Fold:
Amino acid sequence: MRIPAHSVCTAIRDDIVAGVYERGSRLTEELLARRYGVSRVPVREALRTLEAEGFVVTRRHAGACVAEPTEQEAADLLEMRMLLEPLGASRAAQRRTEAHLKVLRGLVRLGQERARRGNSEDLRSLGSWFHETLAQASGSPALTSMLTQLRHKIAWMYAVDVPANPVESWAEHGAIVDAVARGDSERARAITALHTERAGTAHRLRFPGGANGANGTDRVRTSQPPVNMSGLRH
Structure:
C-alpha cells in the first residue's frame, strides 16, 4: 500500500514538534524512509511541504534540516495568532452551522467540568479541539489552514503553563460560543482578542537565546523505534 505524502508529512511534523528531531538536525531521506516504513518519494514530498510551512530548511552541503527560528520569529507567531483568532471568531459568528455550535457547546461543558476538577491534561486537549472547531466554523479554509499551522509552530516553539484560573479561562470560551451563537461578530471578536492576549502570557520559549548546537549534525533521538504508518488516517 502506498502511504500518502500528507500522512508522512503529518508524522514528521508531529515528531519535530515533539522534539524527536532537534533544531538544526539533518533530515535525510534514507533515515526518514526507514523510520516511517515508506519509500523516499513521499518523504521528499513531505519535506517540501514542511519547508514551505517553516519547519524545515535546505542548507548547502547539508540538505534538509530542522529549522532554527529566532526569538523574534517565535514572537511574531503569537502576534499573528492574536490577530487571526479574533478574525476567525468574528467570521464564525456569521457562518457557523448548528453542528459547529453543538460541538463547541459540548467542549465548553467538558472544559468547565474538567477545570473545576483541575485536570490540566484534559484541558490542554479540549482547548486545542475548541480552537480548531472555532476556526473551522469561520467557513474559511484558508484561515483555518493558517491557524492550524500557527498552532503547530507555537506548540513547537513554546511550552505553555496551565492557566492560573482555568475556570475563568473556560468561562471565556463559553462567552465566545454565546456570541457566536447569537451572530454577534463584534462581541465574538472582542472576547476572543482578550482571551488570546491572556493566553499568550502563559507561553514560554522552549529555546531561549536562539539556535542551540552546531548546524548540520545528526541530532535525532536514537531511542525512537520505527513508526508504523499503515495505521494513520488518510
In short: The first helix runs from residue 5 to 18. Confidence is low (pLDDT under 50) at residues 211-223. The radius of gyration is 19 Å. Strands lie at 56-59, 63-66, 158-160, 203-205.
